[in-house]
Amino acid sequence: MKSTIILLLFFLLSLNTYAQQDSSFLLRGRIVDAATQLPMESVNVFSLTELNGISTKEDGTFELKIESLPNQIQFSYIGYETLAIWMDEKGEKWLDIQLHQYYSRLPDVVVSAKPKIEEITHKAYTVRDFIFYENDILIMTYPGMQDGNMLVLIDIEGKAKDSLSIKGIKRIEFLKKSCLGNVHLVTEAHDYQIGIDSSGIKIISEDSRKVYSRILEPCVAATERHLYYRFRFCLGQVLKFEGYEKESEHQFTISEVVNGENMERRYEEEVAEEVGYIDYLDLSWEEKQNVLQRHLQGNAKLASLIHLFYQPIYVPMINVGSQLCIFNHVNDVLELYDSNGSFQRKVPINYHKIEKWDTRILHDEFTGKVYTLFDHPKGKVLRLLDLENGTLGSPVLIDCVYIEKMKVRDGVLFYLESGASLSAANRILHKVRI
Length: 434
Prior knowledge:
By secondary structure, the protein is an alpha+beta fold. It has a domain of 100 residues: Immunoglobulin-like (Sandwich), CATH 2.60.40. 17% of the residues lie in helices and 45% in strands. It is built from 7 helices and 31 strands. The strands form 8 sheets. Strands 3-2-5-6 form a 4-stranded antiparallel β-sheet, with no helix packed on it. The N and C termini lie far apart (84 Å).
């Protein structure tokens, strides 16, 4: 009787084990170039749900074990548009995938109607910086050594409406509009808030640069109810996004982005030897960050040297309608949150992996559209970024080699161009409808 019970238990255990194994299956398929129909080797096939993946073989085929459904599978390859699909049916699968090239065709773009580029400031002075203010543009100029810097309010066509001399302000760095919409003139040591009303342009307050850097600079977006902040740690290798509810003063964490590879390398090279490798292995990830941050803050010379080898990660956050969009270029995803900081979904992106990427995201606050830039032998290529699927729109070539600051407002691109020769070295503000 005892033997019979043991055999029965063994049989039931086997059935349970078999049932667990049977829940997984092998996803098979083949990936080809959509234009040539040739098989593509080394394409990344990755499960965004289970965080595991493989690469295609020489003949373009792949086999990926799927443990659970539903499941989101991503197919990506440098120079090709990323494709993501949802799987919600159980069973053996075979997928025929075609990937489309997108950037390799940019140098051969033929523009049937060349965008009309207009100069909206004069060559008599250099535009050092500019920002939008309501329906106008506030520019900071440097007309000459005697006249000094000036703030000039112009309309969209370039007609001057008012001006203010700021000749006495030294070591000016930039103009900035805060997340609350206030205009600031920032120098090495001070922060001047600029007021513009029916009486003209004026300086309404003055504070230290430290106050600006600590309170205003981290605020990257705002709504009627919330303020959103981005804080940098470990020389820009760790970014933390937080929200603040104005009425209740409730604070909440939205997301944290870490360049783990650089952080681990920094820790091993700069700290582990001092604290001991045994202790280093026992430390948690949070403790490593704190130790590394204290170490770098206490060693200015080392921190300066590290800046040469580790650039701060570029992960902007913008408010588009009712969504917060975090462009997580470290983890190859666009993260979408609601205004309360609750996660909604992720969208795969790979435009930032292209060598010619310009490392900029432009947001049109009037239309809600988002653009990114690529370098081109003739200037810059502007492309609309689809926030629903992470793909890029048709390229728009801005035919100008010496382009500096760029902003988009109501479907019009504004940019500063500096001439190629000394006789045309002044920075002129241009606009072009896109």
